[in-house]
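Residues determine shape. Next comes a sample protein:
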Amino acid sequence: MRRLSAKEVPYPYRFGWFDWFCLWYPPGWLILFNRHWQHYKPDPDGWNWLEYLLFLLPGGFYLALLIRWLRLGGRSPRANPTPPDPDYQQRFRAEVLAAIVQRHFRAELHGLENLPEKSPVIMAMNHAGMCFPWDFVSVGLLLSQKRDWFVQPLAHSIFFDHPWLRWWLPSGWSQVLGGVRADADSFEAAIEAGAVLLYAPEGWRGLAKGWRQRYQLATFDPSFVRLSIRHRVPVLPVVCLGSEFLHPFTVNIKRLARWLGMPLFPISPLVLVFVLFPSMGVWASWTRLRYSLQPLWHPWEDELEPSRSETYQLAEKLRSRLQTLIDDLRSKTR
């Protein structure tokens, strides 16, 4: 069955009382994501109303999972790769994400004088939270409100391929919303196409560094520096504070993560709640996300044809600079 683009649906998604309830009740965020998708895209393998209601009860998600599995004939939801849909991304942000980002995360964007007028650009930002990447999702929304951009986050392959994710979110959800697979070929293709890329130089090391090291930047992967120099694409450094409180007091259990085929397995005082309400996997704690845009960086002005070691040094130079900014911003906040 062909999936419609958002333009082909004649009427927008409007919040009803049930949607507002889901917005304020943490297990309901997953319902919002799927209901919005089903409004614009046919999804015969998706969740239905009975299953949604079970999400809201302690332990009900497991019964909903069983009912859906039986309804699908004892199989997983079908994989259905689809291309990016800028229209759907725009509507999802305006109709669902805006309420979450503004009311729950109270996101703020500072340093707008450093925001370039045109793309392509690589946005390099620190990454934390030990949960669904709300720090990246939120800044993508804020940027789309300031510029008419189709912002594309670079995402780990788990958001495209992991079989567990297909039971939470619709098949193809990450691709339709513009996610770029975190591999060299996809990264380079997006740059050549003139994308606005959200990139975490720390990679999963940043997300999984845990509560004790929440303000310490992990080693930067220098691949974005090489691509910036090769294609003459400027880098927009961004510092985010507040993401460390998305899932606070968390440690990463590496052995369990490897066993489950995941890059991290967070354990915190909230784990008992997540066990009772697995649909809260896309939820995060209340916080205030504050983004500080820095002046554009043109690495090719430092090195025209850097060697491998020089590329690492350039990445480390940016890491050191952002670490200083984080420390300064924390001092001012205190």
Notes: The chain has 15 helices and nine strands.
